[in-house]
Amino acid sequence: MRVVVTGGAGFIGSALVDQLVKRGDQVLVIDNFSAGSEKNLEEAKNASAKELVIENCDIRNIETTKLITDYGPSVIFHLAAQVDVRASVEDPLNDLETNLVGLIRVLEGGRKAETTKIVLASSGGTIYGEPDAKQLPLNEDSPWNPLSPYGVSKLAGGLYVNAYSSLYGLRGTTLALANVYGPRQDPHGEAGVVAIFAGKLLNRELCTIYGTGMQTRDFVFVDDVAAAFVASIESGDGKLLNIGTGTETSIQYLYEEMALASGIESAPEKGAERSGEIERSALDPSLAEEILGWSPQTSLRDGIHSTLEWFKSKKEETS
Predict the structure, then answer these.
(1) What is the reported pLDDT for 127?
(2) From the centroid of its chain, how far is CA 136?
(3) β-strands 219-221, 117-123: how paired?
């Protein structure tokens, strides 16, 4: 099967590419390498160099449409995006151009290529906004209430996918992702807290917990998330599906588990609460299990150990 993965050199995208290559799929990766790295694709290259094509292109560029049209994929996985909530507040126009204009470029490529299916990466942490804690874990019937331009653009993206399905028969599934973590996540910049903690703990630097530390997130391992994308090839048409564990984990507990696994006994620093941060979050994955046959397979403890081992191996390579 011929497939396109936008953002395929990124953290989640490269994990998906690995699984697609192992399936025997032919893969076109479209990435501008602003966040991703070609190093993330080394495993896929080694496994099947002939079946992997990599194009350096910004999804906002009209060239994206041409690349997809010429490649003629059966399935498109659209993961390329502007993913920084705070950056979306500071520069909402850039967020709109990347997440919506870029999506339209991709959808137009799919339309012209008569692609069968598109699977869109959305954000379960932002499209629902600040939920009533009594509703946790949130299911797909929870009201939408994005509180940032990023949340708005990801929500609108799913609606565009639905519109193209109605207009042109391009079947679509939107996956609302919880807090994804794992190997290849960049600990610098706007990274997930697991990657940030991993980088600092292995360097024997103090970690910082902002606010009380009792704020919760739903941490789901990257390989499990990639498996959800693959499962969406044949199922989930027209659906928004939550991809998470349904379990709340406090940032304080996360730190304690990661510090224990790293052999660190020091307490973290405390920082001021960050404005706009959601207090609690968890996504109910029951519908994904029902429709996709998908459920998370990696425990938080196992995922933490895998992540720390990866960061440790990379540290040793550069030392």
Answers:
(1) 95
(2) 21
(3) unpaired
Rounded distance between C-alpha atoms, residue 242 and residue 230, angstroms = 15
Bridge partners of 29?
A: 5, 54
Residue 124's closest CA among 176, 79, 83, 81? 176
For 281, the token pair is 């979050």
- In 3D space, the residue among 301, 224, 287 whose CA is nearest the CA of residue 257 turns out to be 301
CA 37/CA 172 separation, integer angstroms: 27
Dist. CA 305–CA 187, nearest whole Å: 16
What residues form DSSP beta bridges with 38?
none
- SS3 of the chain: CEEEEECCCCHHHHHHHHHHHHHCCEEEEEECCCCCCHHHHHHHHHHHHHHEEEEECCCCCCHHHHHHHHHCCCEEEECCCCCCHHHHHHCHHHHHHHHHHHHHHHHHHHHHCCCCEEEEEEECCCCCCCCCHHHCCECCCCCCCCCCHHHHHHHHHHHHHHHHHHHHCCEEEEEEECEEECCCCCCCCCCCHHHHHHHHHHCCCCCEEECCCCCEECEEEHHHHHHHHHHCCCCCCCCEEEECCCCCEEHHHHHHHHHHHHCCCCCCEEECCCCCCCCCCCECCHHHHHHHCCCCCCCHHHHHHHHHHHHHHHHHHHC
What is the spatial distance between Cα 214 and Cα 216, in angstroms, rounded to a whole number? 6
CA dihedral (147, 164, 58, 99) in degrees, to 10, reads 0
Q: What is the mean pLDDT of each run of 10 residues along the chain (319 residues)?
A: 97 97 96 94 87 96 98 98 91 97 98 98 93 93 94 97 98 97 83 91 94 95 98 98 97 96 93 82 97 98 97 81
Pairing of strands 216-217, 249-250: antiparallel
Active site residues: 150
